Amino acid sequence: MGGTDQGVAPAGVLRTARLVLRAPVPEDAAAIYATYASDPEATRLMGWPRHEQVSTTEWFVSMSMHEWKTYGTGTHLMFLGDTLVGSTGLHVDTKTPGEVATGYILGRAFWGHGFATEACRAMVEHARARGDRRIGAYCHADHTASARVLEKSGLVFQGVRPRYVVFPNLGPELADVRVYALGL
Ligand SMILES: CC(C)(COP(=O)(O)OP(=O)(O)OC[C@H]1O[C@@H](n2cnc3c(N)ncnc32)[C@H](O)[C@@H]1OP(=O)(O)O)[C@@H](O)C(=O)NCCC(=O)NCCS
Question: Which string of b and e fits 106-145 if b means at least 16 CB within 10 Å?
């Protein structure tokens, strides 16, 4: 269920030109698993291990619902009509008040249509509307497409942090990341 096309959006639901963005509910787990979370290619450069069974996705949804309850924001699933295409989010940085982090992943069938940029721009606007002070993101240093999405969304390259994050689907080594941020 991707939300509806008529009337006023329920609280917590965001709309862009083409997408509906909303918090996950337990009924979304199977689609999340099938669309991107279990796909080795889609998850290759993510900071979390690919899901090997749908119960992992169910656990993720329950953690995400807890995050929403605690912070009033979190993962936003992206829908095109009733079809799940991917996920973005706005995550509160508990160590730095006023800072939020974003990221995104799309099912492979939906790459190359500008959806990540559209969703990322919506997260920037949403952070601004919430009164957040700064939005940040990082990507693997070799991830040209993701860097491009962040730049097109207005985030500013802060530099490369060497050996900063483990990308578990690549291996156990720390990898270099490109860091981006935008003051709001
Ligand atoms: C990265 C990802 C989110 C991009 O989504 P998308 O909807 O295809 O992105 P967009 O269409 O909004 O924009 C992609 C931009 O990167 C560019 N791009 C794509 N692949 C590229 C490549 N290999 N080299 C250089 N640029 C590339 C596109 O041309 C486009 O820029 P342009 O509009 O200036 O031409 C998508 O490929 C994905 O979900 N990948 C798997 C998950 C992932 O890695 N997430 C990011 C973790 S940091």
Answer: bbeebeeeebbbbbbbbbbebbeeeebeebbbbbbbebee
**CATH dotted code for 14-134:** 3.40.630.30
Q: Whose CA is nearest to atom 37 of ligand 1?
A: 111
Pocket test of ligand 1: the residue of 21, 48, 104, 120 to mutate, having most ligand atoms within 8 Å of its CB, is 104
Atom 11, ligand 1: residue with shortest CA distance: 114
Q: Which of 82, 52, 27, 53 is nearest to 169 (CA)?
A: 52
- pTM given for the model: 0.94
Q: Tell me: the pLDDT tens digits for 92-145?
A: 999 998 999 999 999 999 999 999 999 999 999 999 999 999 999 999 999 999
Does 104 contact ligand 1 (Cβ within 6 A)?
Answer: yes
Question: What does the pLDDT look like over 42-71, one tens digit per residue?
Answer: 999 999 999 999 999 999 999 999 999 999
